[in-house]
Amino acid sequence: MAYTLEHKTPKSVLNKGTGFLSGYSHSLNPYVGCSFGCSYCYVRRMPVATFRDQAWGTWVDAKDGAADVFRKELKRARNNGPVTIFMSSSTDPYQPAEAKAGITRSLLEAMANDPPDFLLVQTRSPLVKRDIDLLVRLGNRVRVSMTVETDREDVRRQFTPGTPAIEARLRTLKLLKEAGVPTQATIAPVLPCTDGFPRKLRPLVERICIDDYFMGDGSGGRRTRSLGIERLYGEMGLKEWYGPEAYRYVYDRFLETFPPEQVFISQQGFEP
Ligand code: SF4
Fold first, then answer.
1. Which of 16, 91, 127, 137 is the least crowded, having the fewest Cβ atoms under 10 Å away?
2. Ligand 1 lined by 14 (C-beta under 6 Å)
C-alpha cells in the first residue's frame, strides 16, 4: 500500500503491558501506523488512528532515535523487576518502512548488547530474516511469532491485499528455524483455510497460536464488527467462517497434527 513516511523523535518507547498484554512488563512499537493496512486491523478504531486525517495504512511515523531512548528506559525498568517486551502491539515492526528506516534493527542491536528477560517479535513480514544475526544473539530470550492467518492466497488477497504472500512467510519460518531462532506460527485472526494447513506448518514450527476477532480484538468482536469485515466473507461465499465458533474447527484440525501442548488459544499463545 502507498504510504507517507514521517520521522518523529519519541520521548518514550516502552509502554506498560496491560489488558491482553498483561503477561508482559512492556510493549514496544518502533512505528506509529502500519502500511500493511489489513482490513480487520482493530488499531483502525483506536485513538492513534482515529485522530489522523489520513486513512489507516497510508501513513507511518518512524520513531527516530528509539534505540537511545530504549537503552535508558530499559535500565530504569529493570529496577521494577524482569523486563519482558511485546514488539509490537499496534504496528508491524517489519513493515516496508523498516527496510529504509531501520528502527527495529536499531532496537534489536540494543537488545543484543543488553538483553531484556524476554522479547516477542510479532510480525507477518519476511523482512525479519534480515535480522537473524541479532535474533540468534538473543538465544532463548526471544521468540518470533509469524502471523499466518490462512494458507489460502485468495483469502489473504481478499482480507489483507497489502501484506506479504503466505509462501514467503512460510519460507521465513523455515530460515528462522534453521538458524535456531525460537518461533511460532500465529493464526490470528483465524481466516478460512484448507484442512491441509496444519501439515504445511508441521515441519516449520513447534508452537501454534490460534486467535480470532471475538477473543482477540479487545472488545469481544465489537471493534471488528464495526469495521464491516463480515461483508468480505459474504463476497467470497464463506460466511460460515465468520463467528465465534470458527476457530474451533481450525483448532481441532491442528490437534490432529500437533500435540496439544504445542497448540495455544488466544492470549495464552502470546505469553512469554
Ligand atoms: S500488520 Fe498488524 S498492525 Fe499492521 S495493519 Fe495488519 S493487523 Fe494492523
1. 16
2. no
Total-model pTM: 0.97
Whether residue 231 contacts residue 150, with contact meaning beta carbons closer than 8 Å, is answered with no
Residue among 1, 38, 40, 191 to mutate when testing ligand 1 (max atoms within 8 A of CB):
38
Q: In whole angstroms, how far apart are CA 163 and each of 25, 71, 195, 267?
A: 29, 31, 23, 23
If you take atom 6 of ligand 1, which residue's CA is the nearest one? 38
User: Ligand 1 in contact with 124 (CB < 6 A)?
Assistant: yes
Closest residue by Cα to residue 139 from 118, 165, 168:
118
Domain that holds residue 35: 4-270
- Determine if residue 150 is left, alpha or beta; phi over 0 gives left, psi from -120 to 50 gives alpha, anything else beta: beta
CA dist 184 and 205 (Å) reads 6
94 and 32 Cβ atoms separated by less than 8 Å: no
Name residues of the chain where pLDDT drops below 70: none
Total number of domains in the chain:
1
- The domain that holds 40 is classified in CATH as 3.80.30.30
Q: pLDDT digit string (tens) for 84-104? A: 999 999 999 999 999 999 999
Amino acid making up residue 198: P
- Is there a contact between 170 and 204 (Cβ–Cβ < 8 Å)? yes
pLDDT per position as a tens digit, 211-247: 999 897 778 888 888 899 999 999 999 999 999 999 9
